[in-house]
Each structure stands twice: as C-alpha cells, then as structure tokens.
Amino acid sequence: MASRQKDERFGSGKEKGLSRVPRFVPRRPSLERFRRQLASVDAMPQLCLLGILAGILTGTVMVVFRLLLEFGALFFIPGDDPEAFETLSPLFRAGLPLVAVTLIGLWLWPQPSRALKMGIGHVIERLAYHQGKMPMRNWINQWWVGVISVIGGLSAGREGPAIHLGSAASSWIGSRLRLPHNSLRVLVACGTAAGISASFNTPIAGVIFAMEVVMMEYTIAGFMPVILAATMGALVSWAVYGAEPAFSVPPLQLNSLLDLPWIVLTALVVGILAGGFVRLAQGHPSISRMPFALRLAIIGLLTGAVAWWYPQVQGIGYDSLEQMLNGPMALDVLLVLAVVKLALTAICMAGGVPVGVIGPMLVSGAAVGAVMGMIGGTLLPSVVTTPDLYAVLGMAAMMGAALQAPLAALLALLELTRNSAIMLPGMLAVVVAVLTARQLCRCQGFFLSSLTQQGLHPLQQPLMQALSRVAVPAVMERNLARTPRVIDHDRAKALLDSKPTWLVIIQDGKDKPPLAMKAAHLARVLHDETWLAEHAQIDLEEVPGQRLDLAPVHLEATLSEAYDTLNESGLDALYVEHTTAPMIRKISGIITREAIENYYRRKR
Questions:
Q1: What are the phi and psi torsion angles at 508 (to 5°)?
Q2: Within a 10 A sphere around the Cβ of 478, how many other Cβ atoms?
Q3: Does pLDDT of 261 surpass 90?
Q4: For the chain, N or C: smaller number of CB within 10 Å?
Q5: Over the stretch 196-210, which tens digit does the pLDDT of each residue have?
C-alpha cells in the first residue's frame, strides 16, 4: 500500500512508468505547449500576447481606480473633482486628513506587517525575491489606502497605487494559468508600463519606467510585450478620458543659451531637495518605534495644519501643477508646494502610510522650477529669458533625481509637453539633478533606497538576471524513466526500451528523495553476463556508476531559482515536479548544474 501511494505521489502511472500519452486531449495540450514555449527566452509571440492582455487588464484597473476617486469626491467636494480641496471650508479640509488616517489605521492595524507593503517598492521587491507573485491581501489593501489617501486630503499620488494594482492584476493572469515564472516577471513589467501609460497618457515613458525603475534591465524580449502593454493601457484610458495628457503644458522653448547657467543652478537645487526627500522618507529608527496610531495622528495633524491655509498641498496636486505651468502663482504658494508638500509626502511614507509619490514629486519639482524661474526673471532678466520654462524643467528634474531614472523622466517630459524643442535643456536639467542627488546626497533612488533600508538588495548579478529570463522547462532533460530501486532483469530491459537518458530511482522510505542515474550505466551491466549471473535482482544503488541526489524544483521555476536551489542544497541535480492534481505530483524532468551553466555560456 505504501509503495502504491509513493508511486502515485510521483506520478509513475502504469507499471514500468512507460504508459503512452494519448494522441489527443482536448484543450490541455495547447496550454501545456504554451507554457513550454514561454519557458524559453525567445518566446516573443507568446509574451506579446500576454502583454496585450496585461495592458487591457491594467488599463481597466486604472480607469476603475480613477472612477473610485471621482465617486468618493461626489460626497463632499463640489464639482465632483477629487482635486478641488480649495472649495472646502478651512475647518473641513483641515479635519479631512485626520479622518483619512483614521480609516487607513482601522483597516491596516489588525493586519501583519507584511500586508502593509504596497506601491512600487513592493512591486520591485516581489519581482526580485518572489518572481513577480503578488499577495492578494496587499492588493486589496492598496485599493483602500490608494483611494482614501487621495480623496482624504493627504499629499498622495495615484501612480504608485496604479502600478501596484496593474502589476498584481497582470501577475494574476500568469498565476491563474500556472505560467513559468520568467513570464510572470514580464507580466509585472507590462502592468507597470500600462499603469504609468494609463495614468499620464504617456506610453513611451511607461515602457522606460518599467524597464529602468522596476525591471532594472533592458532586453529585446522584455521590450516588445511591455510596449504592447503600454499601448493597450493608453488605449483603454483614451476610450474613457480622451487622448490628452494628465495636464496641459503650453508650447515652450529655450530662447537663449544664456539661460543654461541658471538651468544648471535650478537643477542643483532640485537635486538637493530630491535627495532630502528620499532621506526624509526613509525615516529614523525612533519613528519606527512609535506606536502606529501615534504616527498616523502626526501625519493627519501636520497635513491638516498646513491644509488650513494652503489646501494646494492636499491630494495629487495636478490642478496646481496645471495652474503654475499655464499662468502665474503666488510666491508663498509655490514655496509651500516646493518644500512643504514634498515633506508631507515623505512624512507619510516614513510614518508607514504607503502613499503614491510620483504625482506629488512632479508638483513639487515644478514649483521649485517656477520659483527659480521667478527669481531669475526678476534678478537677472537679461539671463533668464524664459521664466515659464523652468517649471517644466523642474518637474522632469525632480522625477529623474528622486527616482534615479533619467531616461524615464526625459521621455515623460517629451510626452507630457509634446514638444521636442524642450529636450535639450531638459536633458541638461535632468542629468545635473540626478548627479547632484546621487553624489552630493548619496541618493540611490527612492524605491531602491527604501528596499536597501529593509536589508533587501533587488539589483541582481548579471548571471542571475540572465537565468531569471528562462524557465526550467527550456533546459531540463525530459527523456527519463521512473523505477523502484530493486528490479528484475526483464524490468531493467523494459526500462531501456524507450531509450531514456536518465533513470529516476524512487527509494524506499517516505522521506527519502529520489536518485538520478544515467541509463547508460544500467545498459552497461545488462551486457555483462558475469555481473548478471551474480545478481538475480538488480539493486540500482549497486550498479557501477554515478548516482545524483535530487532536490525538487517546480516546473514553473526560473533557472535562477533552480540555480539557487542547487547552491543551497549543495547538490548537482534537481528533479522537476509538476502538480497534476491535489497531492499528486509528477516528475517531469531532470535539470543539472552543468546543463544550466552550459545554457548560460551558449546564450552569452
């Protein structure tokens, strides 16, 4: 009975493990073939199909998220505009953040700390350490925190929640279909790109943001599906909100090269503020030791106190951004947006409220640029010939410096302004700001710094990056036969009839892992009459030849996961499990350290 259960567990099927596969099984073979094709790094058509599905799903999620923000505004904001906090009375808008942090606290307080991880940083962590698998609880929490933080008047953006929601929804497609983990990584990148694309109507910036900030690598196989996902996300958003960007930018250009020194100075200021923002958002150990309720109270009180006089700090701030890009704004309001809004966003993050940071970052960067343009235009009118230009440059410079993502910031600038004439000064401003934040403030980038602070290191070595793009089925040896440890001569000959490369020896004892032996070793002794005469029964552990201890790895795993398992177990081979039914597992193949290393050398 124990032997029968053991055989069922490893899917040995009929006697000799050589049962024939039916020539036609409806539906299942096509999905299995699709999974097998995705295991390879060259599965471009299949990945592109997944990119289209991920883009449509993420675009839909983003539209639903924006509709929820508008629906929430129906209850207390005139005009149904979730950004119009200026229309509320001072007392109401000052009390609103306290209500928001109370609702967030009541929702998150009974949950474990791992469920409080949300936003882009969480996406990067799951991609680096969990092959892109996203917990459902965190996804649900992101809906609540994302909506409440924006309509509740905290200094928060919608892009971080959109990326988390879109990436998790896209990853769900792969998990639901039990696709290889290397395709889950691509699906996460697709969700990221589509989320940015649908939020800003900037598909190109979405693609670069996904590759530069989240994936942290550039590959042809990665670009193609991500481009399609960003396109589909933008199309879904266009169908509901139109093709215009998130905010309008007037036509601007650099009128004189005399502006360049002041642009450099502006970028230096932006870079310092970006570095300070990242440092402040990381918090201090004393803050993390405070009770969660006290931290929430501080966030609500600080935001409410500022909102009493300056409601522009509340919400995302795109209405204020559009105003400063298209007309003058009071200097005191600009200063509050430049410094205080940035600080309030960082305090939310340091206090444990994972709000979106990209929107507030753009608003504060534009305010810094507007202040510098105003000062330069007043003090040095012969040098600063285009003061209005500086707000746009500050916006891109802040994004590039705080995220350490210069290319994504430049393409966002291009798509938001739809003006290539602005790219030359934009490149200068972004590069100077990025270098200032990196060298002067020791800023690695907002999301990377947050993960490093937690002891995580999402930047992979080149070897592991290359291996994470390929799944186990692309390399494993499928030509194998399963067998008990002790067999007779006829059973041994029958095993070799199918000409297997490997024999998987199922050992006696429930907790003993299987062994692997080259079938050629058994074939050698079957031709040795003397040896056969001495052994009426063949104990495969006594057959001359090398046997490898095996550890399990799942069929969906990437080569990087398999390589890690080999290193952790100290073994040289793994058996590949495939769950066909609850509690029934099938050995689908053998993968060795040598096969992984040979594959890497050949592809390199």
A1: -70, 140
A2: 13
A3: yes
A4: N
A5: 999 888 999 999 999
Tell me how far apart the alpha carbons of residues 561 and 556 are, in angstroms, rounded to a whole number: 10
Neighbours of 156 (CB within 10 A): 32
Question: How many CB atoms are located within 10 Å of the residue 537 CB?
Answer: 11
What is the three-class DSSP state of 83? coil
Region 472-481 average pLDDT: 89
Strand bridging mode 551-554 / 573-581? parallel
**In sequence order, what DSSP letters do the residues of 558-589 get, joined into one string?**
BHHHHHHHHHHHT-SEEEEEEEEETTEEEEEE
State the pLDDT confidence band at 20, using cuts at 50, 70 and 90. very low
Write the single-letter amino acid at 381: P
Distance, CA of 328 to CA of 334 (rounded, Å): 10
Structure tokens at 50: 């997944």
DSSP codes, 438-458: IIIS----HHHHHHHHTT---
Say what percent of the chain tops pLDDT 90: 48
Whether 218 and 233 have beta carbons less than 8 Å apart is answered as no
Query: HEC states along 151-211?
Result: HCCCECECHHHHHHHHHHHHHHHHHHCCCCHHHHHHHHHHHHHHHHHHHHCCHHHHHHHHH
Asked if 507 contacts 529 with a C-beta cutoff of 8 angstroms, the reply is no
The pLDDT of residue 604 is 57
Mean pLDDT within 266-283: 95
Taking alpha carbons only, the member of 430, 356, 440, 436 closest to residue 398 is: 430
Q: Please choose, from the candidates 253, 190, 197, 186, the residue with its C-alpha nearest in 3D space to the C-alpha of residue 421.
A: 253
Tokens for 486, please give them: 């002790």
Rounded to whole angstroms, how far apart are CA atoms 507 and 590?
A: 16
Residues 412, 64: Cα–Cα separation, whole Å = 23
DSSP 456-524: ---PPPHHHHHHHTSBGGGT-B--EEEEESEE-HHHHHHHHHT--SEEEEE-SSTTPPPEEEEHHHHHH
b vs e for 251-266, b when ≥16 Cβ sit within 10 Å of the residue's Cβ?
ebebeeeebeebbbeb
- Pairing label, strands 502-506, 515-518: antiparallel
The helices-and-strands tally (H runs, E runs) of the chain is: 27, 9
56's enclosing H/E stretch is helix 44-73
Sign of CA dihedral 451, 455, 458, 462: positive
Reported pTM:
0.83
Supply φ then ψ for residue 587, to 5 degrees.
-85, 115
Q: State yes or no: pLDDT of 9 exceeds 70.
A: no
On the question of pLDDT at 552 being above 60, the answer is: yes
